[in-house]
Design brief:
By secondary structure, this protein is an alpha+beta fold. The chain has helices spanning about 5-10, 10-20, 25-65, 70-100, 140-145, 150-155, 165-185, 200-205, 230-235, 290-310, 355-360, 385-395, and strands at about 120-125, 150, 165, 190, 195-200, 225, 240-245, 250-260, 275-285, 315-320, 330-340, 345-350, 365, 375, 375-385, 405, 420.
Amino acid sequence: MHDLKLWRDHPDALDAALRRRRIAPMAQALLERDKALRALQTELQEQQARRNALSKEIGRIRAQGGDAAALIAEVASLKDALEANEERLRARTAELDAELAGIPNFLAEDVPEGEDDDANVLIRSWGEPRAFDFTAQEHDDLGAPLGMDLARAAKLSGARFVALYGELARLERALATFMLDIQTKEHGYTEVAVPYLVRDHVMFGTGQLPKFGEDSFRTTTGHWLIPTAEVALTNLVAGEILAEEQLPLRYTAYTPCFRSEAGAAGKDTKGMIRQHQFSKVELVSITRPDASAEEHERMTRCAETILQRLELPYRVMVLCAGDTGFAARKTYDLEVWLPGQGRYREISSCSNCGDFQARRMNARYRPQGERRTEFVHTLNGSGLAVGRTLIALLENGQEADGSITLPAALRPYMDGMARLVRHG
């Protein structure tokens, strides 16, 4: 949600910010609506003041035994006009709020220009892709003999679901525990068990509503299945005024995530890359405004640690203007190497949202020793997407006989198991 005062004070600068998002200038139209709305508010206040003055005058005339019929008729007329204007004000305010709610976050100055992911910029890379002396297979071919069952999952739920058996199910659980242990024990995140069902205002707070409602699942009770734990974790501070000493707050959660993928029809329909239900370890930070850029770098390094410990080659990309998400000011994507596909694929996005979500949630803090409050800054990132990490382990650890060598850091979480072996 954007502050209209910024539009009034800096219309040209904000139109320039919209152009970076490939959105046509809209400051003039918004300010005209705002001006008309404020004129209506002034008219309403004047009518209320006139009604109050007339009521006093009617009381005075009656006390003196006079005839106040004309004034009473005017008050009745004002009552109808007030009700009409109050309804008009509610409707116009809702329209303006809805338009503001649909405007994405303004990008950080150092976000590179570009239309789509082809313009994303490489920041750094880690690890060397393994050279195979055989043809590397994709994860779904490797996974089927190990207990990855897409066909039976489809029988239960349709396309884009998976059932994992035996050691693969155990591996998914081990990965989540491994990730949580690092983020909580080494990086200072507090683990939180959050609800998987949330209400409209919670989805609105982090920017999923109203624009992206079709990408999520809604229940018949009006709840939404969380598309990411970010939604619940970030809203933990909604409506609150935090003390500066409490910041930064760092939360992590392991949850299933549910996405209709309405905006991704036909993409990655093979295997486990893009599912309607998947699991993820999420990272969320709540910070002071002057600390959010540094926190963004820190969060990204926290996510990178997981990939490094699992010995998975990856690269860090900064997203260009045309590829940066609705609520983000700036985003780093971590892309892991998948030898079966022969390319890097996203496994984590770490975003600094500035005060964009905080304004929608009304989440503030009070600087130490001051009475005023400011909006906090919020950040979120995957630390990591568990299913995609499992995919990366299968493809990078594959051997010629179809077995999978597990990285040393993960073996204690698998009771010392060093290799997954095909069955049947």
